[in-house]
Design brief:
The protein is mainly alpha-helical. About 80% of the residues lie in helices and about 0% in strands. Helix 7 runs antiparallel to helix 8 and helix 26 runs parallel beside helix 28. The longest helix is centred in the first third of the chain and has 29 residues. The radius of gyration is 40 Å and the shape is elongated.
Length: about 550
């Protein structure tokens, strides 16, 4: 509404101007001229009303209707500059920039004193990357309106895009004369000088800012950091010393000193300052995390990384992301229990980060903490009900805890959200098959086992699990043997898979091959597995090898005592 009122005011002033000019002439005119003046004023009023109606339609979003009104207006009065200006706005809204530029050029050719026309034209040239054209316009506009530094700023940007960097610096210098030293202008000039590889010139600009704010150490730190970054650390120390005089407790100075000593290969000094920075609550948590993450893949400095992490969790004990990063380092260094504790702390502080849940649940699975996995995966599902991985892990835990019906229910619920995780679909099938197997519902078990191995035909775990299930139920033993053979080809040193192969032969009454394969399993650490030894005992008993059977039973008893 405000914009419409402004336009009405402009049109009214224009109307009054035309009326006054005509009125002056009318004093010397005849009655015929009076009639012509009246007709002219009526036309102008009608055109102004049409223009106003077009603006209303544009502001209401009715671009097509506004465009029709403006085209008709231009056709009736080809010299109506405001009509071309408004028409250009419609074209810009329709992403017809080239046509809008043409309309604006026409408006300017009719009236080159209206700088709003030139501003919109310059912006349009910028939009399509014709900076050589916008440069000329912004320069003209900036010269005509020196009190508005925005136009000079846009002129500088147009120069930068054309790589006229020194001219751009001159433009920024001109802005600085009007506005005084400011961080935005200093940063712009610094970046240009650095692009020109003139580090000292950039430092000179930054010194002006530091001198303008003599009690602000950060500007001195920025100069030092720039020199260090550009491997000119010998020029950094005077600025750091001056910053220390202003604020000896500033942790960002410690970070800069750390970078300085790293650059000069003085590691002990470097870490001394870094630890000092970490002990300060004033240094941002994000900056601390950024630095420590630089050590994540550095095997030679893991001790330093953990020293920093210990300081970090002491200084910021209520920051979830601190405990999460700590957990990441512990996990990478195979400290699974400690990592689980760190992730638990992170989730206590902020349970809304699913990647932490995923990592935490995975560690519980690896640690064999089945009851915890069951409970925590349930909590994860409550917080993130659309994450299928949590359902999968809860189903694993439920299966292990012999909650077979709940396993099936959890998997069916998880499938509803598994549309983006097709690689896990076979896992859902295999677990559901395993649950049905435990419930002695073999038709359903075979259905889901088949789905799992169809989706992942080379998954040795699925092949072996399916084969063993068939063997246990004395069904489809030839199919079981084929799948077991394939699983052993994929992983040829697995005692568990060799045991399955032996057990299928046993069920087929092929005791010779059963003994060959069970003894392969025993040679692959299977002699420490009670289940495998019990299978061995059954095979020996069927073979009538009493001496070997007695030794096997003794081994089983020893393991049970342990």
């Amino acid at each position: 509404m405000k914009r419409i009122l402004c336009l009405i005011l402009i049109l009214t002033l224009s109307y009054n101007y035309v009326f006054c000019q005509k009125a002056k002439k009318s004093k010397k005119s005849s009655s015929k001229n009076d009639t012509e003046l009246f007709v002219s004023l009526e036309q102008y009023r009608d055109q102004s009303n049409t223009l106003l109606e077009a603006v209303k339609e544009r502001l209401s979003g009715n671009l097509s209707q506004a465009e029709i009104l403006l085209r008709n207006l231009i056709q009736s009065n080809p010299k109506y500059d405001l009509a071309y200006f408004e028409y250009a706005k419609i074209l810009l809204l329709k992403n017809k920039t080239t046509e809008a530029i043409s309309a604006l050029n026409t408006a300017i050719s009719i009236n080159d004193t209206n700088y709003w026309f030139k501003i919109l034209l310059a912006e349009s040239y910028d939009a399509i990357g014709q900076f050589s054209q916008s440069e000329k316009l912004w320069k003209e506009i900036a010269n005509a309106k020196p009190d508005n530094q925005e136009y000079l700023f846009k002129y500088a940007i147009a120069l930068i895009y054309q790589n006229k960097l020194r001219d751009a610096i001159s433009a920024y210098d001109q802005m600085e004369l009007h506005m005084g030293v400011s961080k935005d202008i200093t940063d712009a000039k610094r970046n240009i000088w650095l692009k020109l590889n003139r580090v000292d010139n950039a430092a000179h600009e930054m010194e002006k800012l530091a001198n303008a704010y003599p009690n602000e150490p950060q500007y001195l730190i920025d100069i030092a950091d720039m020199y260090i970054h550009h491997e000119m650390s010998e020029k950094a120390m005077p600025y750091l010393q001056k910053a220390l005089q202003l604020d000896s407790t500033n942790p960002y100075i410690n970070v800069s000193l750390y970078n300085y000593y790293v650059e000069n290969k003085k590691t002990n000094d470097a870490f001394k300052y870094l630890k000092g920075a970490y002990a300060s609550p004033e240094l941002s948590v994000d900056e601390k995390i950024r630095i420590v993450l630089s050590f994540y893949n550095d095997k030679n400095h893991q001790d330093i990384a953990f020293e920093l992490l210990h300081i970090l969790v002491r200084t910021h004990p209520d920051e979830a992301k601190v405990w999460s990063v700590y957990g990441d380092f512990l996990y990478k260094n195979d400290s699974l229990s400690a990592a689980a504790s760190a992730y638990e702390k992170a989730l206590t502080l902020d349970e809304t980060k699913y990647p932490i849940w995923q990592q935490y649940l995975t560690i519980l699975l690896q640690l064999g903490r089945t009851q915890d996995l069951y409970q925590q995966s349930h909590t994860a599902i409550t917080v993130f009900p659309s994450q299928p991985y949590s359902y999968l892990l809860k189903a694993m835990a439920a299966l292990e805890l012999e909650f077979y019906q709940e396993t099936i229910y959890t998997l069916e619920e998880g499938r509803k959200f598994n549309y983006n995780y097709l690689s896990d679909e076979a896992g859902f099938d295999f677990l559901e098959a395993s649950a049905y197997n435990k419930l002695e519902m073999m038709d359903s078990a075979i259905f889901y086992y088949d789905k799992a191995v169809q989706k992942q035909a080379d998954n040795a775990l699925y092949l072996n699990g399916y084969a063993y299930s068939l063997a246990e139920h004395d069904t489809l033993l030839d199919k079981a043997l084929q799948m077991s053979e394939k699983a052993n080809k994929i992983e040829n040193n697995s005692a568990a898979y060799q045991d399955t192969h032996a057990w299928i032969y046993y069920k087929k009454a092929d005791l010779k091959n059963a003994r060959i394969w069970i003894e392969k399993a025993l040679h692959n650490q299977g002699d420490k597995d009670i289940d495998i030894l019990e299978h061995y005992a059954a095979i020996l008993d069927a073979l009538g090898d009493k001496e070997a059977l007695e030794k096997c039973q003794q081994q089983i008893n020893l393991l049970r005592q342990e």
